[in-house]
Task: inverse folding
């Protein structure tokens, strides 16, 4: 598979930053860990990886802007392009030695995500997508699962943590979904939840209270893998509303119906 110059820039940056994360994984006692809010942690590992990503992307595309989880928004000279960066998606997993986390980078052009990279450094799994060119896992084309029976489907969700989100709403929605789904999972890294739906490991996924850096690459990944994605209320711009619901066409529609029932 021949990578475009843009995809080469993105994957090179992500691979470089991932080496820093890999070195830091399991070294929590040597990392400065702080809390951004209740249940919301950040460590020197997140910051180092973000700095590497920013420097590499800035070098290759000096005019593009940034929306970064740890360093915030930086406007670029080119107002039509900006990178959405999550240097470590799954920080809580990372800090607990749970080997399930990823880096996620999406490129927005005039409000649309046109390229996305999600990389799991522990499993060495690289998910990439470019608009109109398909989605790939380690150079092999991926598609969402074909399963259409909710009773056979495995559905992932995101749990709101202490101090965040509407816990009551989550309980209502998940108890409705639970009554129909074959199985449910909570993995703790939104970018990988989206990537796993894109490659058919998971049949559907929903979560509320996310940010553009969590979902930018994954939104494109799902669409390029033939899947459907909206926000959790069916709205068409999950990048902005920060909630997601996705799956193949049938399960996406079914999931939205169940979420609506749960919301009441
Ligand atoms: C978190 C993870 C988690 C999701 C949270 C996110 P972070 O990202 O994606 O799965 O439930 O809402 O904030 O903080 O580890 O980058
Ligand atoms: Ca995240
Ligand atoms: Ca993060």
Result:
């Amino acid at each position: 598979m021949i990578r475009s110059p843009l995809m080469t820039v993105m994957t090179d940056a992500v691979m470089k930053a991932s080496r820093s994360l890999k070195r830091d994984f399991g070294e929590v006692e040597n990392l400065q860990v702080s809390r951004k809010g209740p249940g919301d942690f950040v460590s020197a590992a997140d910051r180092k990886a973000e700095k590497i990503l920013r420097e590499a992307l800035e070098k290759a595309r000096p005019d593009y802007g940034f929306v970064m989880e740890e360093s915030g928004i930086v406007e670029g000279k080119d107002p039509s392009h900006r990178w959405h960066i999550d240097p470590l998606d799954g920080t809580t997993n990372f800090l607990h030695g749970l080997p399930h986390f990823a880096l996620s980078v999406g490129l927005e052009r005039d409000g649309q995500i046109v390229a996305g990279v999600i990389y799991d450094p522990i499993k060495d799994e690289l998910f990439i997508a470019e608009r109109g060119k398909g989605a790939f896992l380690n150079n092999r084309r991926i598609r969402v699962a074909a399963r259409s029976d909710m009773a056979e489907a495995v559905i992932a969700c995101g749990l709101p943590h202490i101090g965040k989100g509407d816990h009551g709403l989550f309980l209502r929605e998940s108890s409705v979904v639970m009554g129909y789904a074959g199985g449910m999972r909570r993995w703790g890294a939104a970018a990988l939840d989206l990537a796993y739906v894109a490659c058919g490991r998971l049949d559907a996924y929903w979560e509320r209270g996310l940010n553009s850096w969590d979902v930018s690459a994954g939104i494109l990944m799902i669409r390029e893998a033939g899947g459907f994605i909206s926000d959790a209320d069916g709205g068409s711009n999950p990048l902005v509303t920060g909630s997601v619901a996705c799956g193949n066409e049938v399960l996406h529609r079914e999931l939205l119906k169940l979420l609506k029932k749960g919301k009441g």
Observations:
- The CA atoms of residues 206 and 245 lie 4 Å apart.
- The first strand starts at residue 33 and ends at 37.
- Residues 46, 69, 86, 88-89, 91 surround calcium ion (ligand 3) (CB under 6 Å).
